[in-house]
Write the structure tokens for this entry.
Amino acid sequence: MRYFFILFSCIWLNAQDIKPDLKLESATVYNQGAQLQSLAETQLSKGHHLVVFDNLSPSITPESILIKGLQGINMNSINYERDYLTTKETGQQIESLESDLETAEKSQAKTQSKITAFQKELELLTNNQTLTSEQTGITVAKVNAYANFYRSKFEEIHNLLFDLKRELSEKNKDIQKLQNELNKLRGDQKQYRGKITLDLTVTKASQKKLQLSYFVNDAGWYPSYDLKSVDTEQDIELTYKANVFQHTGKDWSAIDLKLSSAQPNRTETKPELTPYYMNFNKRAHPVGNRFSHLTYNPSIKKVSGTIYAEDGTPLPGVNVILKGTSKGTQTDFDGNYSLKVGNAKELKFSYIGYKTEILPIYASTIGFQMLESKNQLDEVVVTGYSSAKRADMAVNEMDIEEVQVEKDYTATAVNFKIPQKVSLKSRRDADQFELDKQQLETTYQFFAAPELSSSVFLIAEVGDWEEIDLLTGEANVYFDNTFISTTTIFPQETDQKLRLSLGHDQQITIERNQPEKMSSKSFFGGTQIVEKAYEIKLKNNKNRDISLRVQERLPISQNDAIKIEDINHNASTYDKKKGFLNWEFHMDSQSQKTLKYSYKIKYPKDKKINIRD
């Protein structure tokens, strides 16, 4: 594929090709893509020249190419093209394999010739084994000798053919292996590379410093975090890390590196409001891509999560596909899924009656609420699903380069300047740099939802995070020098407190039951009455006081015929809109506490409803 930027018409006849050495000086790396600045010094004589910069990235955006340092020179055109660059590193290996292949093919041909010769001999014997009545002097002894000869000869030739065919089969396998290896090396010998050609007319000979700038897509960076707490008496320490990768085909050696939160590939067209019409039976959803702030993380190889409906209930049967393939899975009854993603960059989530969502693979845990779409009821068909069992999370360990990063702000972005020269190899794995380290004001509280779990969890509420210019990224959570879990930080969606689960505490026990005398069913006329009552018993077996929040829920009626009445509780707060009961209190060491609540459900006795225990 070729791209041409013609500034002036010109004839490339008799032009002198010049290939100056191009040295990469600096790079501004964005979440997706990088702007590269290179320098080349060359002596240009008077006349017509073609200045060629080759062995460049094949993913250069042609419109981004800028050339500086051409004072006194007429630039007729810029030509960018992508082509194969043949390398010589594997030449000796290819020659050796070609020699081995030629030897193997000769041996194969000799074996095949032997097989053909014996098959001809077998054919000749078959055609000349008939005894006719015209032959005289035939005795029984001669017939036996005749038969023995043919039997022995046939047996000998068939045995030889069997051995030769088996030998030929093995040689065919050896040849195929050599051919496969040769094809692989020949493929490796060719690399898809980019080339920029400048058509120049030089009016006066001079030494020039040419500055070449262009944007490439095969580089980027993504943030990640470590959140560490020693105990509940200490604030959480946040380590802000940048994971930088580039696979342009050439190593970056001793360059100035800047990381930017800007997204240069996004459209800069301002949005236009349209009239807001309201009518019955139409659901209004936000316009635009609600996941546009998320960026691809190439280190993720497996993704799991939970998909919910808009009402917060798990959504089973959601199709989760690696975009551009037929590989995927489905959410289970609890809305959970797990999928190996390999080198895929995006996941596609689809479900009948819901808006299809395409998300970049930004973290190892991806979960969200799908939006209903009554206009999209097309049947979704997915083939080639693969299943994977949920595995324990593993923490990827990298060498982190600790540097004093300089930070500056533009109107729309935050930039991080790495103070010393940086070298990055061309590979898909990321190099990690520490951008910041902060102590965050932290409060700790234990939390329990007894209806869902009999465990009590330690929750950390973190403040001051807004001042650190965080981006969406994955965070490893550590407590008491132990890895706890991986979570994702969403600065755009988080409220004033960042809440982290630090695992469950076995020294706090909780028991939820229904006293039989207080729970019952009865009828009154055409109405069925169900009385529900619960007791939650807690015990703090720790040797210190704790702060605890317990949350339960009451049913919410969505039908006038279903009544929720006689609600009694000793909770701290009751959210009538969501039906949540919240208790917040302190428990002394080695103390116990009992929480209580009850309610009645009334509904027509000829109807059925689902009532949870």
Summary: The chain has five domains: 2-88+192-218, 91-130+138-190, 220-263+396-504, 302-369, 508-604. DSSP finds two helices and 37 strands in the chain.
